[in-house]
Amino acid sequence: MTNTPLTLGVDHIGLTVRDLKATRDFFVDCLGWNQVGERPEYPAAFVSDGHTVLTLWEVQNQQGRVEFDRKTNVGLHHLAMKVGSEEALEEIFRRVSTWPGVVVEFAPENLRQGPKRHTMVYEPGGIRLEFDFDPRQ
């Protein structure tokens, strides 16, 4: 037995969303990601910022859809993304806070005593997103 991890990191993250177009447009048009693929028959879209790939699927039973409750459900609590500067964090917040369908949980603030700062939102498809800037990195 070795202590060396058998994995190399995350290949992609698959997320089921309420509205595929709204979520794809949020990542591509609001955050500047690229659409790197799609499967219209599924329906699914693949988006990337050049570091992370997200596979987005639209929920198939809208009437039976159950929204995620992070305090009672098992599953993705939130998706946290690194940001390269305080200015980028503020620009992201400026864009997402006015984007249709986005719900802001809180504006940029220190994480505990800092110096790391973050903001948390729900994108239009219902996924909770965190954007983090750590000046120590």
Automatic annotation (TrEMBL):
<feature type="domain" description="VOC">
    <location>
        <begin position="9"/>
        <end position="134"/>
    </location>
</feature>
<dbReference type="InterPro" id="IPR051332">
    <property type="entry name" value="Fosfomycin_Res_Enzymes"/>
</dbReference>
<dbReference type="InterPro" id="IPR037523">
    <property type="entry name" value="VOC_core"/>
</dbReference>
<dbReference type="Pfam" id="PF00903">
    <property type="entry name" value="Glyoxalase"/>
</dbReference>
<protein>
    <submittedName>
        <fullName>Glyoxalase</fullName>
    </submittedName>
</protein>
<dbReference type="GO" id="GO:0046872">
    <property type="term" value="F:metal ion binding"/>
</dbReference>
<dbReference type="InterPro" id="IPR029068">
    <property type="entry name" value="Glyas_Bleomycin-R_OHBP_Dase"/>
</dbReference>
<keyword id="KW-0479">Metal-binding</keyword>
<dbReference type="InterPro" id="IPR004360">
    <property type="entry name" value="Glyas_Fos-R_dOase_dom"/>
</dbReference>
